Amino acid sequence: MEFEVESCDLSTKDYKFSSVPVLSKELSYDDFFRTYMQPNLPCVIENVTTDWQAHFKWLNNNNKPNLDYLRSQYGSCDVTVYNCNEKYFNSQKTEACKLSHFFDLWGQDSSKFKYLKDWHLKNTFKNDDFYQVPVYFASDWLNEFLTENNEDDYRFVYMGQAGTWTPFHADVFNSFSWSANVCGKKRWILFPPGEETFFKDSLNNLAYDISDVYKTREHFELVQNPGEAIFVPSGWYHQVWNLEDTISVNHNWVNGCNIMKMWRAIEENLASVKKEIEDCEDMDGFNSHCQIMLKASFGIDFFRFYEFLEFIALRRLSQVENNRTEILFHGHSLGVKHATFDLVALKSVLEEFIQHCDVPKIFNSDISKPEKLLQKIRDSVKVY
Q1: Which of 79, 146, 191, 295 could form an SS bridge with 195, CB 3.0 to 4.6 Å?
Q2: E strands of the chain, at which residues?
Q3: Which of 349, 357, 355 is nearest to 377 (CA)?
Q4: What pLDDT tens digit does each residue of the chain (384 aa) get?
Q5: DSSP states along 214-261
Q6: In this structure, what are the phi and psi dihedrals at residue 166, rounded to the nearest 5 degrees?
Q7: The whole model's pTM is what?
Q8: 301 contacts 292 by C-beta, under 8 angstroms
C-alpha cells in the first residue's frame, strides 16, 4: 500500500476532544495524518491485528496466549522481564532469562507481576511476518534508519499477565509510539504535554506511580481492547496497566511530524548535562565530554543525530530527484509528495541544528558537510 500526503504544509490546527477517539480501520492515511499525527493528538484504531499471523497462531481458541506454540517457536530467545512489584530507580527491576523460563512461571503467584517488555522479536526473526505495520504508522524514520543499517531497532513485543503495568513515563527520544493488542485489554492514562511537570518533586524527579493522584490534572483515560492500536503522540506522558493477560506489538518512531520535537528534546538534555557539570566548563574537551554524557543519558548525541538526518535526507533527495515511489522496510510504499514533506521537515531541523552553538565546536571542519546537505535540500524543496 502506498501512503501519501496531499501537500507539504507543516502547520497544525487547534483540535479539542473530551475523550480519546476510537476510529474505524477505514480511516484514511491522510485523515489520520492531518487530524492526529500532525497536531500530535492521540487516538485508537479498531481491528488492526485481526488479520495478523500473530492473531491466528499466537492465540488459543479462547483468544488467550498460546504458550505452547510460542514456546515451540521462540522458547530459546533471550528476553528481559520486569518485576512490577519491585521499583528500581524510576523503573522496575529487571532480569534476563529465556522465554521458555518466563513461560514456565506463567500463571504462578510468583510470576503474576512479571512483565516481558522490549523484546526485539522482529529484529531477531527478520523473515517472520507475525504482524504488519499499519499504514498510519508507516512513516517511521527511526526504524527505517536502524533496520537498513542492520542495527538494533525500536520494534517490540510485550507480554504480561493481568496486573502487570508500566510506570509513568514518556517515550524515548520524545518519539511517537503505537501499541497494538494481539490479545487482552490495557488501561491507559495519558497526559497532554506540560501536565507532567505537576508530577515532579522539588528535585525534578518524575513520579513513579500516578494512580492515586492523576485525577488532579488534565488527563485522558481509556481501555484498549483486543485488536485495537493506540497512537501515543510525542511528549504525552502515560501509565499503563494490563487488565487481562495481554500480548502487544509496539513501535517507537520519529518522522517529519515530530523530528523537531526530538531535536528540541536533545537540546534540552544537553543543556541539563552542561548544567550538571558546569564547574568543569574550562577543561579541555568539555563539549566532547558533554556529548558522551548526552549519549549515555538520552541515548543519542549530536553526531548520531546528524547521521540519522543525513541518512533519511539522502534517501528522500534521491527519491524526489528521480520522481519514484520508494518501498520501505515494512513493505509500504512512500510517495513522492510525502518524501517532499519529509525534506521540508528535515530542512527546518537542519537549519536549527547548524545554528546550535556547539555544532561548530564538535564538528570542526566537518561543519561544511551538514551545510552542504542543507543546501541540497533547499534546492530540492525551494518551491515550498
Answers
A1: 191
A2: 2-3, 22-23, 43-45, 78-88, 91-98, 114-119, 155-160, 165-169, 176-183, 186-191, 220-224, 229-232, 237-242, 246-253, 326-327, 333-334
A3: 349
A4: 678 876 555 444 454 678 999 999 999 999 999 999 999 999 999 999 999 999 999 999 999 999 999 999 999 999 999 999 999 999 999 999 999 999 999 988 777 899 999 999 999 999 999 999 999 999 999 999 999 999 999 999 999 999 999 999 999 999 999 999 999 999 999 999 999 999 999 999 999 999 999 999 999 999 999 999 999 999 999 999 999 999 999 999 999 999 999 999 999 999 999 999 999 999 999 999 999 999 999 999 999 999 999 999 999 999 999 999 999 999 999 999 999 999 999 999 999 999 999 998 888 767 788 999 999 999 999 866
A5: GGGS--EEEEEPTT-EEEE-TT-EEEEEESSSEEEEEEEE--TTTHHH
A6: -120, 130
A7: 0.95
A8: yes
Residue 248 in contact with residue 181, Cβ under 8 Å?
Answer: yes
Residue with cell 548526552: 294
